[in-house]
Write a structure and sequence with these properties.
Methylamine Dehydrogenase, Chain H, seven-stranded antiparallel beta sheet, five-stranded antiparallel beta sheet, 1 helix
Length: 386
């Protein structure tokens, strides 16, 4: 077998070109300057928390401009990191895990604090390595009402809550909450929080100066077998609003020594189609108007509580009634902005996109107008706006 022959004409042509061409002057290459852009003051931002399921050690949070979902930047959340973006501060909090060899080695758990002005890293605080490594449920990581403390759910699988003092920059307590899960802080007492328990009660915990605490159980509030509640609740003034698997809204008061049921609103009772809430973050509330927005799917049954939405239902929490229904993308998470002209931001579970829906003016018939979409990452399962 012979080798392919190289063309002598091609060789001569190239040689002649090189020999006969004058020297070409080259402009001096200027090195790029790398820096951080400051986000304009007053920019409302959407945070798409991407668990990156195929490589969870490299989770991300994508930051978008809420107005048009233009991409602003990214914060790494590492290994199953939890995200909290409370109002009242520009800081962004991430509770996460690092392994010294990426996928193995010594485990270090931290609260990492990032600037909401330019998304740069500010500082870190070591925390217990008992932190729950789970999907991104907002109830697993929350701040106190005065923004001094952070509460972090642990699970080994024994459950406890780590308390971090942001002023002292250290973890000050790890409080057992056996048989219970999730954190719902009180508005009036910064070191008081409630937790949902498997028997249908809520436990209330007051952390004291020495780091000790006692959990006080409420009376039964929900039936964990017939009508379990989603853990991803929303604060509404000094109360917490939960959706339930069977199609109810529970409004819980956690301000007292024990939690109490303030109200229960049926959503789908008497509605044809057996509609139920579903998804990972199934309810949003616009505080000023007292309107809740719930992700709903038809033909609900045992085990369908993670089904994506077919519709979003608007619920007047003050009037205790459903005031409208609108078709939706197959959403698995939803949140609401809190301005005078609020919008909804939903995670399309099939396309992994963030969708902005503008809401109708007060008094108008409920309808949803999609005005922008953008990638939310590989597998976003939490969306927040601030």
């Amino acid at each position: 077998m012979g080798y392919p022959m190289r063309s002598p004409l091609a060789s001569l042509t190239l040689a002649g070109f090189l020999a006969g061409s004058p020297a070409v002057a080259q402009d001096e290459i200027q090195p790029e300057t790398v820096g951080n852009l400051t986000i304009p003051a007053g920019t409302e931002m959407v945070f798409s928390v991407d668990i990156a399921l195929g490589h969870v050690v490299d989770g991300r949070m994508h930051v978008l401009d809420a107005k048009d979902l233009r991409y602003i930047g990214l914060i790494g959340t590492s290994n199953l990191g939890m995200v909290h973006v409370p109002p009242g501060t520009t800081d962004i909090y991430v509770a996460t895990t690092h392994l010294s060899r990426t996928t193995r080695g010594t485990r270090t758990d931290l609260v990492e604090i990032y600037s909401g002005e330019d998304l740069t890293f500010k500082e870190e605080i070591p925390i217990s390595t008992n932190r729950a490594q789970a999907l991104n449920y907002r109830s697993l990581f929350w701040s106190s009402s005065d923004l001094r403390y952070l509460f972090i759910q642990n699970a080994t699988p024994a459950t406890s809550v780590s308390v971090v003092d942001l002023t002292e920059k250290k973890e000050i307590a790890e409080i057992p909450n056996p048989g219970c899960y999730g954190i719902f802080p009180a508005a009036g007492k910064p070191l008081r929080f409630a937790t949902t328990c498997g028997d249908g009660t809520f436990g209330t915990i007051d952390v004291v100066a020495d780091g000790s605490a006692e959990m006080k159980a409420s009376a039964p509030i929900f039936d964990p077998d017939a009508d379990a509640i989603f853990s991803s609740a929303v604060r509404w003034d000094d109360k917490w609003v939960f959706a339930s698997y069977a199609g109810n809204i529970y409004i819980i008061d956690v301000e007292g020594d024990v939690a109490a049921l303030a109200d229960k609103i049926p959503l789908s009772e008497g509605v044809e189609g057996n509609w139920r809430p579903g998804g990972y973050q199934p309810i949003a509330v616009h505080g000023g108007s007292g309107m809740a927005y719930v992700l709903m799917h038809s033909n609900g049954a045992e085990g369908s509580h993670k089904n994506p939405a077919e519709e979003i239902w608007a619920v007047d929490l003050k009037a205790k009634t459903v005031v409208g229904r609108a078709a939706s993308v197959p959403a698995i998470a939803v949140t609401a902005s809190q301005g005078e002209t609020p919008a909804l931001f939903a995670v399309d579970g099939l396309k992994a996109e963030i969708v902005r829906y503008d809401l109708p003016a007060t008094g108008a018939s409920f309808a949803l107008t999609p005005v922008a979409t953008a990638s939310g990452g590989e597998l976003p399962d939490q969306v927040e706006v601030r």
